[in-house]
Amino acid sequence: MWNGDGTVEFNGFRVLYSEVEYVRRIFERHPETASNLGPKNQLVKNAYMNTLLDLIDITCLAPQELTEEELRDAENTLMDLVGVGFELDWLKKKLEELCVKKKKMEARGARMRELDRMIVEQRQVLLELEVELKNEEKEAVSDSARLGFEDVV
């Protein structure tokens, strides 16, 4: 139901018209989402729905776009929403997956930096060996050269 203020009534929530499709998909895929929601006050319910939509937006970000603090805040927000009656096991699972990806990405980044450091060290060793080889080659050429008459006499 259109409210004339850019919002629409949907499943007991007043949401922006631009967000109706998102909210519809949430309830279509997860009908239990707000089945145990405690607050009856429309403003409070709307605030919780906006928080849920913001949390979903955060969960859609790539792991590298989030800090550890932002992930902790997202987990706390999720717990707050669950605390008021939202059924969000589906979102909790996605947020946990995001945290695991973030940790893997950080570990992979550390491993890549370590490998890069090792490559730089090995290149330096290789350069030193090449210099040593050139010196040996010069000495070998010098040692194998024929002596001239003047060198002998």
TrEMBL record:
This is MATH domain-containing protein. Residues 88-146 form a coiled coil. It comes from the Eukaryota. It comes from Brassica carinata. Keywords: Coiled coil.
